[in-house]
Amino acid sequence: MQTTLRLPVVYRKIFEFQGDQCYRQQFEDSQQNPQWFQIILRILLNFSIIFVKKYMEMKEKVDKVVVNVHTDDEPLPVLLNRNISTSYHAFNHLSKHVADNAVLVDVQPNIGGSYTSCVNQPLQDQATIRKIDFDSSEFVNLLNDAYWRSCALVTAAILKESLDVNLEFTIPNIDVSSGFFHVDVEGLNGNALSRDELNTINRYAKSFIKNAKDFEVVSIPSDLSDEVPSNYIVRIGDHVFPSSGLVIRSTSQIGRYSILHSKSSGIETVSVGGVSLPFSQPTSSYSWGLIVKNALTKYQKSSSS
Amino acid sequence: MLRRSLGSLRSFSSKCKSEPQTASKSSNTIRKEANLVGHIAAFPEIYPDFLQSPVWNRRNALKEELERRDMLERRMNIDIPEFYVGSIVAVTSSDSNLGAKEHRFVGICIRREKEGLHHQFTLRNTIEGIGVEIMYDLYNPTIKKIETLKLEKRLDSDLSYLIDALPEYSTFDFHMEPLAHPAGTPIPINETKVKLKPAPWTRRWEIFGCAGIEDSWSGATPWFKRKLQKTKVNDYEKYDLVAAYREGSTLEHEVAVQKQIQKFENERHAAGLTRRRILRSAAAAK
Amino acid sequence: MSSATLPRIGVTIGHVAQKLKTGGIEPSRRARLEVLRRIVTRCVREERVELKWNRAVEARPYLERLIQLGVERGPLDEYTAEMMEWWLPERDLIVKMHEVIVPRFAEIQSPYTSLYRLPPKRLQQFIQNKREFWKRYDIGILEIDKNPFPPVLSENSAKNEESPNLLNLLLTDALKNNLEK
């Protein structure tokens, strides 16, 4: 394949730029899995087509773009690197507090309709951006879905770190109103996790979340949608997952979090369920106890999907 | 944030009265209920034993309920008439050490205190020039009979000062004939003002503001008067509305208890065991 | 007190009286009542007052009971008249109580007052050696219901309280299921 030949060059160049070991690790892992190999290859190539090729040329000339950050008074114009800088960088011009609180971004490009994106996604064009945090009333459903999805992804990452790196995950779309989220794990031979194991994992989860790992997001171009079933690729720490929708900025935005229960939901798959609340929505331990109890009951009752 | 989470609670406990905005919309149901039950206006005076403790942290719904059942059972066995502080009451109690095996005492009721099964009342009389006070437990099973000889009230709800009054005010004939109270007429108030013996007294009666004592101030020595002015005048305490509210009874409790008594009576009457009535009020009788 | 027993007042009330700082008055139970009397008088005159939170909490039952006496017993009752006279030393307020406030609550059950919490306020106490000393106060609003002022809580706040905020969703669901059991 011709692409294989080109790959190392592009690949090296990307990470020269990003100075990151993780994608490399992921890439090397993926060489054992031909299907993933293809996908990551294409993504990287796409990276190169859309952004990276230009990054290389940018060594001499970095393309700049002006983005307006929405504030209460006047919009603040910010000069950013096109396709490199993210909304997080833009918000940092306003204040670190604003940047840290941002969960999603409402982007209104100068040309074309507005859309919502993740905070850690590179900005492509001139636009006005507005932060969405847990206090905004406008995008609550979107926020809740993104938060629930992120929690499921974090659960997957935590399980991967605490059990086995080679586990395979599917992350079903769960509505917030169901009261819990869950991930389906393949590779545990259908053995559900015991209470002791869950306690240990929960303890590890606390430290994992405390480390404030960013959700790094790459959106997948539409011409790749045949090969990659998801819209986004998300990296949390050392792990990469496909994601069907938006995710939050960082694990530091997760407050109370608990993995509740696991049950086998098929011959090979084990389902692990949990519940969580954002950091900016604190609650008493009594209320949290009620929520956990309710989530556990509902999860145990729910039919294995 | 807290308000939001409480807001979600509200949909389930819409009866939370101190919530703003939902306040003051319900109509006065308790008054209607009281009328329906035929609430006795003088309930706290006739049945001080059925009230709740004035000390709030001693109130215990289960204990009160259990005691109330015992009290009702006891009232089915003995007729406890209506009497007030100031009424003249005769109590016959059994006493194994006496030849007659029973003991009858007549006197003026000077105190009624405590709630529930522990309710006590004290009778006072002068026998051969010596003041005698006997404190009876209302629910003491050795009491055989309680009669009200004269149904009346005095100006105060506590006549403990009779101990320092001249003996003529607490002398009553043991062979007094019971005086019938005409049903439906208000309870007469005996407006006697007693004269106290010269000081010292058992307690500083002049600072309690008793209405039934005649001129306690002029007899006091100047030393007392000076001291009184400095420290002891606390007549403003009666304006403490909430202190009075804490100690007083509530309509809700009285209606609930009255309903319970009525239900108990009806059950026993329907079973044909007795015709005795517990709930009676001479003033409210038709 | 010959009149019939009154119903409960529909406000939260502690089982003992709380001490209040009495400012210039020497602290005593009399001084405490004096502080409360000022608050009650002011509240009847102005119908909505901003106070320190603990004072508002303490004064609310007094105001509530006073209005209840007016509603349940009327101006002719001896005890009510005595209380009104002491708690509202300004004559016109007794008239206002019986002619303006009490008719609002005829045939209505307690509570007749509302208490809201405001964000705490920092106020400068004094300056000593060019150092500023500040103190933080918890603030409450005490008001008599059905007053002519615009409502303290806006119309939207009721909507906000049923927001699809994640905590609200989960807690609502949990409570509902908890109650169904």
From TrEMBL, chain A:
Superkingdom of origin: Eukaryota
InterPro entries linked: Thr/Ala-tRNA-synth_IIc_edit
Entries under SUPFAM superfamilies matching the protein: ThrRS/AlaRS common domain
A GO term, aspect molecular function: nucleotide binding
Name under which the protein is recorded: Uncharacterized protein
Organism listed in the record: Caenorhabditis angaria
From TrEMBL, chain B:
Key words, A-Z: Mitochondrion, Ribonucleoprotein, Ribosomal protein, Transit peptide
GO MF annotation list: structural constituent of ribosome
Signal peptide: none
Record localization: Mitochondrion
Any one biological process term the GO annotation gives: translation
Biased composition (Polar residues): 19-29
GO cellular component, as recorded: mitochondrial large ribosomal subunit
SUPFAM superfamilies documented for this protein: Translation proteins SH3-like domain (SSF50104)
Annotated stretches, region: Disordered: 1-29
Main location: mitochondrion
PANTHER family: LARGE RIBOSOMAL SUBUNIT PROTEIN BL19M, RIBOSOMAL PROTEIN L19
UniProt family annotation: Belongs to the bacterial ribosomal protein bL19 family.
Protein name: Large ribosomal subunit protein bL19m
Lineage: Eukaryota, Metazoa, Ecdysozoa, Nematoda, Chromadorea
Automatic annotation (TrEMBL), chain C:
Entry's family note: Belongs to the bacterial ribosomal protein bL17 family.
Keyword Ribonucleoprotein annotated: yes
Protein name per its UniProtKB record: Large ribosomal subunit protein bL17m
InterPro entries: Ribosomal_bL17 (IPR000456), Ribosomal_bL17_sf (IPR036373)
Gene Ontology biological process: translation
UniProt keyword list: Ribonucleoprotein, Ribosomal protein
SUPFAM superfamilies from the UniProt entry: Prokaryotic ribosomal protein L17
